[in-house]
Amino acid sequence: MIEAPPLLSVRGLRTEFLTPRGVVRAADGVDFEINEGEVLGLVGESGCGKSVTALSIMYLIPSPPGRIASGEIWFKGVNLLAGVKREVLVRRGLWGRPKIVRNERLLRQHRARMSKVRGREMSMIFQEPMASLNPVLSIGYQIAEVLIYQRRKEICDRLLGGHELVSDDLDLFRQAVTNPDPAERERFLAEFCLRIAVPVSRVTAIVEGAGLSLEERVERLRHMVARGRIRIRWFLELVRELDDLESEVTSRDWRLVSGVGTTEDRRRQLAARARYRSRQLAFRALMALPIVRRALMRPIEEEARRRVLDLLKTVRIPEATKVYRAYPHELSGGMQQRAMIAMALACDPVMMIADEPTTSLDVTTQAQILRLIQDLRGRTKSAILYITHDLAVIAELCDRVAVMYAGKIVEDASVKDLFAEPLHPYTQGLLESIVSLDRQVSIGVPLPTIAGTVPDLARPPTGCRFHPRCKYAFDRCKAEEPRLLVQGQGRRVACFLYEEGGSRAAGATSRE
Fold first, then answer.
1. How far, in Å, CA of 431 to CA of 7, rounded?
2. Is residue 196 part of a domain?
3. What burial letters (b/e) apply to 415-451, b meaning 16+ CB within 10 Å?
4. What residues does 408 pair with on adjacent strands?
5. Distance between CA atoms of 414 and 423, rounded to whole angstroms?
6. Is residue 47 part of a domain?
7. Per the domain annotation, does 32 fall within a domain?
8. Which pick of 64, 419, 428, 463 has the fewest CB atoms within 10 Å?
9. Could you give the C-alpha distances from 457 to 4, 25, 30, in angstroms and in order?
């Protein structure tokens, strides 16, 4: 049986920042893999390069002062870092000072390709939601914007196929017709119109129709929706074809720049690009007229709003219609983070990166968000790269864990193996520093800690970067850098206490 290739494979990733103190390599030769549907925990102290690794995968490193110097990130058969070495270079400027030189043409091309991966195939839940959400745009608009940009084809397919009124829709419509409270009727009507993507003004006439039964009103509603969509059918078909062609051009471009494309890919890309440009001219001509744009895009925008309401309910946000219209500052931290999760889920990505999504929240809200992520994991089957300091979260949520120290992966193992028998001294120190009710602690004795701090990555120590803090360090650790060595099935460790395929060197503990 042929084993399926990993969904994401990071190989030799090096990301560096140019600072007044010199070049800081925040990620220095990072290697790990994530399989489909798997949750990989990335753990380590602050300053070890976890967030920089995540931002490098998403191609969100600010330049200047940063750049991805080398490495490969293979995702669904293409290298997301193809050609990255030529995009941002470090040159010597005046008085010999290094400076960053950008190739704007190559950067634009790479960003255009990545814009069809970010959000669509791979998404990210950021650490601080208030710093990631736009404060002047409503929550619903920001999530709908992702759908309109990345999922227009699917929206057009749904509109062309029509929206069948389901029992939930009919319940809302019945409440909008029969509820005695005018305010409640208005609320139910607003939510109903968002669900079926029809303007409130058009449905109000049907709701207030005198002498009509509920069934007659439903039939009028169906007729109105169908007639409105037939009128702009040609535009929906144009948008769907445009998105199909754009996706084909981008996917074949990725294959070609990654070095896995064929002459057939080149031929099909050129043909698709020619058709795409002709359709794009027609689309841009229509969008140049504000009145025409509003009329044609309204069904697409309203269908996106309907999907946003479903997403807000999926992440357990109460009163989804109210939150849709709210601004970020009107929500609590937990609600903001739920909105960020809804945005990450908007396009059903095959992989999500969660960069310490609960760090800024109180303990109760943290537990709620973690339970939500666990439930969504089972529902969406997406692979997740979960970055955290909390080993308890790793044990509860993840399948495998990669331990990172000073820009490098020092241990990679299944959660069960790592907690049962940590190999690297750094991993052992992290686990020993956890306070446990099962462990007896003497009164007056300090709790276990790892001596020292993470080294300055502008001037990292020679050899093994952990050796100044390691109680097992010996001469070789100070002079030579260890490699990640295989230690049994699905396990690797970068430490000289272990020979390749072997176990801990005899007498290592005596070198304390």
1. 29
2. yes
3. bebbeeebbbbbbbbbeeeeeeeeeeeeeeeeeeebe
4. 405
5. 12
6. no
7. no
8. 64
9. 36, 6, 14
Phi/psi for 143 (5° steps) reads: -75, -40
pTM of the model: 0.84
Tokens of 326: 């709210």
Q: State both tokens at 409.
A: 């992966």
Burial of 182 by CB count in 10 Å (0-12 exposed, 13-18 middle, 19+ buried)? exposed
- Whole domain around residue 271: which residue ranges? 137-326
- Which of 167-176, 229-238, 264-273 is modeled with the greatest confidence? 264-273
What's CA 56's distance to the chain center, in Å?
12
User: What is the residue type of 265?
Assistant: D
pLDDT at 383: 92
CA–CA distance, 203 with 193 (Å, rounded to integer): 7
| Spatial CB neighbours of 206, under 8 Å, sequence gap ≥ 6 | 212, 217, 220, 221, 224
121-150 pLDDT, tens per residue?
A: 999 998 888 888 999 999 999 999 999 988
Which helix (H) or strand (E) covers residue 72, if one does?
strand 66-75
Residue 411 lies in a domain: no
Which DSSP helix (H) or strand (E) runs through 412? strand 408-414
Structurally, the chain folds into a number of domains equal to 1
AA letter at 85:
K
Which tokens go with 429?
Answer: 């120190």
For residue 422, the 8-state DSSP code is -
Angle, helices 333-345/290-314, rounded to nearest 10 degrees: 110
The verdict on whether omega for the bond into residue 65 sits within 30 degrees of 0, i.e. cis, is yes
Structure tokens, 90:
């470090």
Radius of gyration of the chain (CA): 27
